[in-house]
Specification:
The chain is of the alpha+beta class. The chain is built from nine helices and 15 strands. Helices cover 29% and strands 25% of the residues. The chain binds pyridoxal-5'-phosphate (PLP).
């Protein structure tokens, strides 16, 4: 049967009738291309000729809004600026307007607890690899329902698996929309029945997860995280290091960036996964080997508690949007 050429009206009819189960999670989307906010999930689209789509030419941030407050939003926006300048991409709005758009989108979504993703794209204008085809950079902000992990992941811990997907180059330090390696890592871990992957560089040092950073606590109490050379400088791991300073002399004896091998991780007292939507999770199994005593450890517990307090009490890092 030949493919139909559709009229504009037929497309509108089609969009009106489109409903997919996952749409119920999509709360609101701002699009500079549309010039405003849409709340109908069928309209939450990006033009195919936006170089974000066909070349991954854009940068993004993901942050959590809980009870109308966004944890460490300033840091996320500072990292967005770094990523954009690394690609020579101008974010189409200044900081004040960006904040306004984020607030308006969350309000339009009508849910004070949601996950917000902000994309700054090279913009539409052709299909080649040439970024100069794009005349106008674009901004898309989408608020989706936040689905926290089941509590048992915090109570019983998670399983981590080494990825065969090569660790990224120093491009890993840019939060670009070029996430194919991250996607393949995640797929591999899921296919293997693990919760999270971790990449290893060619020197055998642990790098990062698909969208998380990792760390270990050695048996002599040192909290070690991989060097920020070929991994993303996570907002969460950075905060974890700051918060962990209050544990010095008690649960931990030192904090450092280090080259961490798999073998060191196998010998660790604790292993942690850290990221925006999870804060911190305890790894109880890595590549089939038990970590520590196979149960979430004291540093994990203390850090999780510190994050919860930091999120609700530390007004310096909270930005009210209500
Ligand atoms: C590749 C990668 N590493 C680490 C992280 C963790 O960073 P953050 O704590 O800022 O969420 C992310 C976050 O999405 C990521 O994409």
């Amino acid at each position: 049967m030949p493919s139909k050429i559709l009229t504009f009206d037929r497309i509108v009819d089609r969009l009106i009738s489109l409903a997919r189960p996952w749409f119920s999670n999509y709360l609101a989307m701002y699009s500079s291309w549309y010039g405003g906010i849409v709340v109908d999930p069928a309209l939450m689209m990006v033009p195919l000729d936006d170089h974000l789509v066909h070349r991954g030419d854009g940068v993004f941030e993901a942050f959590l809004c809980r009870d109308w407050n966004i944890y460490m939003l300033d840091r996320h926006l500072a990292r967005l600026d770094l990523s954009a300048s690394a690609l020579g991409l101008d974010i189409p709005e200044d900081r004040a307007r960006l904040l306004e758009i984020i607030r308006d989108t969350i309000r339009a979504g009508n849910s004070g607890t949601c996950l917000v993703r902000l994309f700054a794209s090279r913009g539409p204008g052709g299909f080649s690899a040439n970024p100069y085809e794009s005349a106008e950079t674009q901004l898309y902000v989408i608020a989706t329902a936040f689905q926290p992990l089941p509590p048992e992941k915090y109570e019983k811990g998670v399983r981590l698996a080494t990825s065969t997907i090569p660790a990224k180059t120093d491009f890993a330090t840019i939060k670009s929309c070029n996430y194919l390696l991250n996607v393949l890592m995640k797929k591999e871990a899921r296919d293997a029945g693990a919760d999270y992957p971790v990449s290893v560089d060619e020197n055998g040092f642990l790098a990062e997860g698909a969208t998380e950073n990792i760390g270990i606590v050695t048996r002599d109490g040192r909290f070690l995280i991989p060097r920020f050379r070929r991994i993303l400088r996570g907002i969460t791991v950075t905060r974890a290091v700051e918060l962990a300073e209050t544990l010095l002399g008690r649960e931990i004896t030192g904090i450092a960036e280090a080259d961490i091998t798999r073998e060191q991780a196998f010998e660790a007292a604790e292993m942690l996964v850290m990221g925006t939507s999870i804060h911190v999770l305890p790894v109880v199994e890595y590549d089939g080997k038990k970590i520590g005593n196979g149960r979430p450890g004291p540093v994990f517990r203390r850090l999780l508690d510190l994050f919860s307090r930091d999120e609700t009490k530390n007004t310096e890092v909270l930005t009210a949007v209500a």
